[in-house]
Amino acid sequence: MITIVGSINLDIVATGPALPRPGETVGGARLARHPGGKGANQALAARRLGADVQLVGAVGADDMADEALNLLQAGGVDLAQVANVNGETTGVALIAVDATSGENLIVVCPGANNVLRPDDVAHLPITHMMGVLEVPVPTLLAAAQKATGFVSLNLAPALPVPDALLAEADLICVNETEAEAYGDQLSVSGAYVAVSLGAQGAVLYKAGEEIARAVPPKVQVVDTVGAGDTFTAALTVALIEGMAPQDALAFAVTAGALACTRPGAQPSLPQRRDVDALALGGK
């Protein structure tokens, strides 16, 4: 069982001909609503990739909560530890997507995600754990310290984190911008450090030394939202399963690439059979 401590959002997505520059209005966009949030995305991604998953999180007592949880519930994620919080809104992400390149801009309104507390994990038995920085750091630390198995941290968005949290990690996932923000703090943690490079794939480090590199298969990019969450979940699942680092990284970049071929974060998350067929020839 993987316990994921993270955010739950409703994504409101505008897909248009270009991303706006500061002060610019871009018209002609199409509007869509999808369940999202990095914690929820990674929970459903890990579940579709074959893991048993429980999600620890919070939503508001509002009409967006059911919509945000719909695909998680249908996908078999254990939601018993998701709280409905009176007086808070369900988290919302406002996303603009370039219809040509699939690139995006995101503004997050955290809402109920900000009220998740260490007490919310204190009573839980935790074996493997995943966490993201869209919920309070003290809660992630409490969960990581309780975990008896593999601990995976996605340090996104880049925020100050205590060394005590990094010391609990077996895997840290960041993109290039986040890796630059954290600098040497990552290499001294002792964990695997995976740096995603978008269309160029990803690199895996250990103690500051590169140990694996993988390039994703060529796909038709529709929407990159959720690709990073899919990568993180896939790499975590693969390493927990005992894959060698190079094989695990290849599996993860393939999963991330497949997530780019459909619109929306959670609707685009790939099934295990599809990743295996492309990354491992079905083996």
Automatic annotation (TrEMBL):
Binding site for K(+): D223, V225, A259, R262, G264, S268
Residues holding substrate: N9, L10, D11, G37, K38, G39, A40, N41, E134, D229
Cofactor annotation: Mg(2+)
Active site: D229 (proton acceptor)
Pfam families: PfkB
Enzyme class label: transferase
Key words of the record: ATP-binding, Carbohydrate metabolism, Cytoplasm, Kinase, Magnesium, Metal-binding, Nucleotide-binding, Potassium, Transferase
Note accompanying the cofactor annotation: Requires a divalent cation, most likely magnesium in vivo, as an electrophilic catalyst to aid phosphoryl group transfer. It is the chelate of the metal and the nucleotide that is the actual substrate.
UniProt cross-references to InterPro entries, sorted A to Z: Carboh/pur_kinase_PfkB_CS (IPR002173), PfkB_dom (IPR011611), Ribo/fructo_kinase (IPR002139), Ribokinase (IPR011877), Ribokinase-like (IPR029056)
Pathway: Carbohydrate metabolism; D-ribose degradation; D-ribose 5-phosphate from beta-D-ribopyranose: step 2/2
Compartmental location: Cytoplasm
Domain Carbohydrate kinase PfkB, residue spans: 2-271
Gene3D superfamilies in UniProt: 3.40.1190.20
CDD domains associated with the record: ribokinase
GO MF annotation, one: metal ion binding
HAMAP family linked: Ribokinase (MF_01987)
Biological role stated in the UniProt entry: Catalyzes the phosphorylation of ribose at O-5 in a reaction requiring ATP and magnesium. The resulting D-ribose-5-phosphate can then be used either for sythesis of nucleotides, histidine, and tryptophan, or as a component of the pentose phosphate pathway.
Annotated protein name in UniProt: Ribokinase
